[in-house]
Specification:
3 helices; mainly alpha; single chain; 89 residues
């Protein structure tokens, strides 16, 4: 059950990073772009859950780390996608 909390924290971290990025951009909401962030958040959640699968105890610090990991995966994924797009121009 503890692994679920880690996955949820990582997923929420990715979603929060995506929403903050959208708010900072001051662009209209584009669901296609947000769906890519949802997929990256889901990947972060699964990866974090796999990483903590064998942990004996999960502390609030672990949940905070998972949240930051989810946010980091979204930010890194966005920057990689932007670099690839810029390279094709």
């Amino acid at each position: 059950m503890n692994v679920i909390w880690i996955a949820v924290a990582a997923f929420i971290g990715g979603i929060v990073a995506a929403l903050l990025g959208w708010l900072e951009s001051k662009e209209p909401f584009v669901s296609r772009k947000f769906s890519a962030s949802l997929i990256r958040a889901l990947v972060a959640a699964v990866a974090s859950a796999i990483g903590y699968q064998y942990a004996n105890a999960i502390t609030p610090i672990d949940i905070g780390i998972a949240f930051c990991a989810g946010a980091g995966v979204d930010v890194l994924g966005h920057r990689v996608a932007r670099a690839i797009k810029k390279g094709k121009e």
